[in-house]
Amino acid sequence: MVYNVIGTMSGSSLDGLDIVFAELTEIRGQWTYAIKASESLPYEPEWMEKLAQATTLSARDYLLLHTAYGHYTGQRILSFIENNQLDHKVHFIASHGHTTFHMPGNKMTAQLGDGAAITAVTNLPVITDLRAVDVALGGQGAPIVPIGEKYLLPGYQYWLNLGGIANISAQLPEQFVAFDICPANRVLNALAAALNKPYDDGGALAAGGVADIGLLEQLNQLPYYSAPWPKSLANDFGTDTVLPMITPMRISVQGKLRTYVEHIATQVASAVKALQAQLPEGGGKMLVTGGGAFNTFLVNTIGEKLAPLGVTIEVPDEQTVSFKEALIMALIGTLRWRQEDNVLSGVTGASRDSINGALWTSR
Ligand SMILES: Nc1ncnc2c1ncn2[C@@H]1O[C@H](COP(=O)(O)OP(=O)(O)OP(=O)(O)O)[C@@H](O)[C@H]1O
Ligand SMILES: CC(=O)N[C@H]1[C@@H]2OC[C@@H](O2)[C@@H](O)[C@@H]1O[C@H](C)C(=O)O
């Protein structure tokens, strides 16, 4: 079967909406993919602000934003369809939306972007709420990408995504596991903002700074890091716990960035060590994606910490780096369309594998 699907992802670094149009093919249980079109649409400052403030709103204003952001997403998808001449080619849309609250301990996760609005605007079937059933079944509801790594990007021991939050997946002998490691780009971006920069291009600022060892030790001691998987993070860990530890420090912005890069790399290495304890042998290849893969200094620092563990890093082509998550949302939506399991309980800790996604249609 061949499915022509639009997948969207609004990541936790708040940089914009990633959209892909993918051809997903299943033949006797084997999946292949081709990305036919992709666009990263940066958020206008007012949308960035609205999304950043979403968790502070009243219930009424939050729901109004949910609706408005659904219409906005629908319009962005319509323009994408027009720009890429995809009229009549798209079977359905899988829209992740933008995560606001993520409280799996309370069996709750919330993504903005009303599916009713998206289907009304695009006139196409829309699948949203891709984490909800897993969370209801006691799972973390994140990371959900491992099913896509398994089906679409095999051949690695580890998959690392350096997004707003860094997360890792690993193939263990019996099962896949995955968990969020630590806040990444969202914190780096907030630090770079002190110099009026949206992000630290290539990690050049961090490379020119000196790490503060005391701060680094404090960061590494946060209890989340020693907790066992399954585990996942919401944005507030970065903004309410991590950033307040860094911003008041009387060190240069470069020094703060350098310290945080060291922190990310230390936590990646520590995650790999914990995973290696479950593996018969060390070594293996790691696929690195997410916008942080463009931060050369960060990637090199991670590479240096992984070398003693025998793990080598591979950064794929730019399209895979930037659109892996949106592509996998398209796959997760496709599995939902087929009524097949699309979130792995071995990863999330839910009571069973499950079919996630609410289907919205307007005709
Ligand atoms: N050239 C670059 N140098 C350094 N950092 C970069 C560069 N290009 C992109 N980035 C970083 O990547 C970020 C975007 O990453 P990405 O799109 O993977 O995040 P996301 O999808 O929001 O995250 P998540 O996976 O957590 O949902 C930017 O905000 C920036 O921090
Ligand atoms: C709850 C939520 O939206 N989590 C995101 C977030 O952004 C990165 C990291 O934290 C990851 O766990 C997840 O997204 C990816 C796509 C996932 O679920 O695999």
UniProtKB/TrEMBL annotation:
Keyword list, A-Z:
Kinase, Transferase
Presence of the UniProt keyword Kinase in the record: yes
List the coiled-coil residues: none
EC number assigned by the record: 2.7.1.170
Instruction: Drop me one GO molecular function for this one.
Output: kinase activity
Which Gene3D superfamilies would you find in this protein's record? 3.30.420.40
Source domain of life is Bacteria
Q: By its UniProt entry, which NCBIfam families does this protein fall under?
A: PRK09585.2-3
Q: What is this protein called?
A: Anhydro-N-acetylmuramic acid kinase
Name its species.
Chitinophaga hostae
Q: Taxonomically, what lineage is the organism?
A: Bacteria, Pseudomonadati, Bacteroidota, Chitinophagia, Chitinophagales
